[in-house]
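ok, trying the design again with the full structure, not the truncated one.
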């Protein structure tokens, strides 16, 4: 078991990529903190699935964009499990609205959750990691932050480009004790994409070399790799997992 007794906090792990990551860590013996902001039942179901795998787990409600809630979440993790070894900054939102119809509030909310949320969770978690002289952080960006053109999600894309930049700055600041890397997924089959127009799905399936959307578990495996000793010389990097894209 690669993560026996490691304490892992995954933001936004009630559903999608975060949920798949929580379960993969549990299979490898980790103690898992399942964070959610709204989906309480889903989060409790993830905790129960983890317990069936004989790992320990708790669910914590916290909006990652709220500093006081983040501070409390990290403190509850420490009082429950005594330490935090791994932080996966996965929580994210998107408003699919055309560029000039998008409101300032939607822009602010996207940046607050997707980008500032990562800053806040990392700020409070890294303090405890530094005390133990080790830790790993993985941030979930997107290929939308690198090379796509998608005006309806311009705010989301900017947040994801920001995550790649923040990852490098955090990796520099926290080295050599803490490694910080980032994953840029392409199209993944989760709730986030459930309302995509059929035409767009058809075009994108043609653009993806492997001719399918990825499964959440395929991103989870990449996250576990970056958190493992197999990635001991990786920090400040962005790992693209997108099935190949034209
Ligand atoms: N799916 C894709 O194609 C794709 C591609 C590239 C990158 N990504 C990124 O991968 C990450 C996960 O996406 P997903 O597809 O798994 O999305 P998803 O299925 O919509 O799940 C999003 C998760 O984030 C949580 N969340 C949302 N706002 C939050 C907040 N303010 N505080 C705490 N948790 C919050 C949700 O919890 P509640 O339900 O409790 O709110 C949920 O667990 C995101 O950062 C996304 O941008 C996804």
């Amino acid at each position: 078991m690669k993560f026996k007794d490691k304490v892992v906090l995954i933001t936004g792990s009630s559903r999608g990529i975060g949920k798949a990551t929580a379960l993969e860590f549990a299979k490898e013996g980790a103690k898992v903190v399942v964070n959610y902001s709204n989906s309480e039942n889903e989060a409790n179901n993830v905790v129960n699935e983890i317990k069936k795998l004989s790992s320990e787990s708790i669910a914590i409600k916290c909006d990652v964009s709220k500093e006081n809630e983040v501070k409390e979440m990290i403190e509850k993790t420490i009082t429950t499990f005594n330490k935090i070894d791994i932080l996966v900054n996965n929580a994210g939102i998107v408003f699919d609205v055309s560029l000039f119809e998008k409101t300032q509030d939607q822009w602010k909310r996207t940046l607050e959750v997707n980008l500032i949320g990562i800053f806040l969770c990392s700020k409070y978690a890294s303090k405890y990691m530094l005390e133990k002289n080790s830790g790993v952080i993985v941030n979930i960006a997107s290929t939308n932050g690198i090379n796509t053109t998608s005006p309806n999600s311009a705010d989301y894309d900017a947040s994801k480009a920001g995550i790649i930049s923040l990852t490098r700055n955090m990796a520099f600041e926290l080295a050599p004790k803490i490694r910080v890397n980032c994953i840029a997924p392409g199209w993944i089959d989760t709730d986030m994409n459930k309302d995509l127009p059929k035409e767009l799905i058809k075009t994108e399936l043609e653009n993806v070399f492997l001719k399918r959307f990825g499964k959440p578990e395929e991103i989870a495996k990449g996250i576990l790799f970056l958190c493992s000793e197999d990635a001991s010389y990786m920090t400040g990097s962005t790992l693209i997992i997108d099935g190949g894209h034209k």
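Keeping the full-length input from now on. The domain at 7-241 is CATH 3.40.50.720 (Rossmann fold).
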